[in-house]
Prior knowledge:
Blueprint: E1 2-4, E2 7-8, H1 9-13, H2 25-46, E3 51-54, H3 59-64, E4 80-82, H4 88-98, H5 101-111, E5 117-127, E6 130-139, E7 142-145, E8 149-153, H6 160-175, H7 178-192, H8 204-211
Antiparallel strand pairs: 1-2, 3-4, 5-6, 6-7, 6-8
Helix pairs in contact: 6-7, 7-8
Amino acid sequence: MNLSPHFTLAELTRTGTGLPNDPSPAQIEKLRALCVHILEPVREHFGKPVKVNSGYRSPAVNAAVGSKPTSQHAKGEAVDFEIPGVSNTALARWVRDNLDYDQLIAEAVKQFPNFKVAATTLRRVITATKNDWSAICWHDGKFYDSIKFPELEILDRVGGGDSFASGLVFGFLEHNDAQKAVNYGAAHGALASTTPGDTSMVTRKEVEKQLSGGGARVVR
């Protein structure tokens, strides 16, 4: 069975354990999404065949390889792969910087229809101390892009994601508005990255200064 133009179900279920490894129809659809949204774009960009090392794992296969029952491989939601001749570092960076997170979020909310909000930060690493920073949020069937912080100067990136999440929640609680929420989250995360440690040293006033067009630096 073809899951996409260049990938088959056999590739995504291959196992060296000799144990049965047959996904359910719902798991096959998840594998199809991985092929369409991850493997195909990677293959097209690098122009080389992609070698799938591990895709779906039945409970028996998952146990045999020593993985936890909660592994996403056991749900059909993960794939390990490589491209011969391309370093894993270069491959991982391209995946991180170029895949469409809106498609991945759309697939997640389709699989988990009880989700009311789904969001993630978008970080493009330029150097260790300079990143492009923004975020995206899904709510009530629509996507919202945050304000962007190009070439954000990083002091300490630890805690940026937590600060984004808390800003996002604050925006929903305070305004019940997805666009404002993702902007609060992105601004809070950006500012937190300019202060040391994994707890925020940022005030609401400083966050709202960013939302009105201020630079991403904490003012003391």
